[in-house]
Amino acid sequence: MTAIIGTGVALGDGDEEKGASASSPAASEKPSATPPANEPTTAEVITAQNSPDFATLLKADPCGEANVNFATKHEGQTVAFDGSIRHMAAHADDRTRYDFLLGPGDKGPQTTDGPNFKYEDVNTGNLHLTGKDIPAAIAVGDKFRFIAEVIEFNTVQCLFRLAPVSTETR
To answer: What's the pTM?
Structure first.
């Protein structure tokens, strides 16, 4: 069974600027050079392009020592990677909250290389979806640019726990 999650509620308040016309003040103002307070600057985000350790991690054994070392060194920092949803599980007591298993790359449930990333107990609004074509539903296999905070690495489950910062469609 493939889980599909609608995002209608997540696309409520806060989407007003999408409809801004050319004559509205919001459309004519120059964008701010400073990122919003809740988003890290590009220089603060760890990517495969600016961190050889992260590039190696994205292809490493999911249970290897590199996972523990990276999580310990970068706890609380922000990472960004192109990935896909490997698995989704709804919470039995609250069907609006899910655990998402994410993998690097585009293979969805067939992902075998790299770490196992997990968003735990989140709803679609917590994903902070961005991009040109925000989907009406989220499903296993969907591809995104994930930006997330490193929380911890669970050595028993070989699992990185992350907190979503933003999720861009690609």
So the answer is: 0.75
